[in-house]
Amino acid sequence: LLYFHCGDVILAVIDWNVEPLGPFRPTPENLYLATGDLDVAHDRATAAGAGRLTPIATRPWGERSFYCLDLDGNRLCFVDETTLFLGRGAAWS
User: Fold this and answer.
1) Tally: H helices and E strands in the chain
2) Which of 37, 52, 61, 78 is 20 to 30 Å apart from 45, CA to CA?
3) What is the pTM of this model?
């Protein structure tokens, strides 16, 4: 079990081969993760064997990102933190 402290959020990564509480189903929607080095994140996803790995692309709304599946089938989107789209009009954007 790994914990990543991301500001006020903690992301837990669980190995279900070790943890007895599983199995759980993959997330139905993308989990977005901002990074300071998107190219390195893409290289690491490639090396880790991520499924459905897309190339890095700049989206029509200006966000630079890529999508993949983790080894449990969870949908992930890695976003360049310098192009992070926070939503139009959101109080926190």
Assistant:
1) 1, 6
2) 61
3) 0.76
